[in-house]
Specification:
The protein is an alpha+beta fold and 279 residues long. It has three domains: 2-118, Helix Hairpins (Orthogonal Bundle), CATH 1.10.287.1260; 133-183, SH3 type barrels (Roll), CATH 2.30.30.60; 189-272, Alpha-Beta Plaits, CATH 3.30.70. The chain is built from seven helices and eight strands. Strands 4-3-2-1-5 form a five-stranded antiparallel sheet. Strands 6-8-7 form a three-stranded antiparallel sheet, with helices on one face.
Length: 279
Amino acid sequence: MSKHILDPGYWIRFWRDMSDEAFHSVLRVTAVVVAYIILRLALFRLIDAVLSHLSARDENEHKEHGQARLRTLRGLCESVVSYTLLFLSGVLLLKAVGFDILPFVTTAGVIGLAVGFGSQKLIKDVISGFFIIADNLFMVGDTITACGVTGEVQEMAMRVTRLQDVNGRVHILANGDIGTVTNLSRHPVEDFVDVAVAAAADMAAIAHAIESAGEELLAAEETPLLAAPRMVGVIAFSAGSTTIRVSVLAKPRDLAQAQIAVRTALRAALLSAGVPLSP
C-alpha cells in the first residue's frame, strides 16, 4: 500500500479519476437544474393555456367572475407543481452527486409516514384548500368574512389564504381554520347613511334634495354606486333633530367609498336646498 502511495502514477490516476467524477457530477447537477427550470416554465405555460381555454368555454359565468376564478385556480395549480418539482429535483440532485437514493426514498417514506401523523394540521390545510376551490366558496378578488376578518382575497395557496382588509393589512389564514365564510362579492351590498337634520325641516324638500343628489352621483363618471341612493325614511327623532336613513347600493370593495361620496353629496344638496342640519 505504501508503495502505491509513493508512486507518482497513483496520484496522477487518483486526481484524474476525481476530476472526471467531479466533472460528471457538475454536468449532472447542471442538467437537473436546467431541466427543473425548463419543466417548471413549460408546466406553468400549460396551466395558463388550459385554464384560459376552460375559462373561454365557460359562457355561464360573468367575465369578471371567470377571470377571478382563473387567477385562483392558476395560483393553486402553480403551488402544487412547484412543490412537486422541488421534491423530485431534490431527489435527482442527491443522485447526481453520488448518493444512493433507494435508501433515501425508503427512509423518506418511513419518515413521511411518521411526519404525516404529526402534521395532520398541514394535511388538513391542503385538503381544505382543494375543497374551497372545488365548492367555489370564494376566489381571488372576492371580499369575504372568515375567521373574524373581512377583506379582499389576494392569494389562495395550498395551505393558506391571504386577505387584505380596507386598511391595507394582510391577514394570512390557514385553509383548515376557515369555517363559516360570508362571501360579500357574489351580489351587490346594500348599506345605509344616516343624516341628522333639524326637527322642523321640510320632509318634502329633504326627499327632493336626496333624489337630486343621488341622480347626479349615479350619472357621474367612475361612480362607485350601482343605483341611485334612496330615502328609506325617519329612523329617529327628538325635539331638536330628525334622523333620515338613505340606502346605498355598491360592490363590497366600493362600499366605503360610496358612503363617503353619498354623505358629501347629501350635505351639499341639503345646504343648497336650505334644509337646516341638526346642530
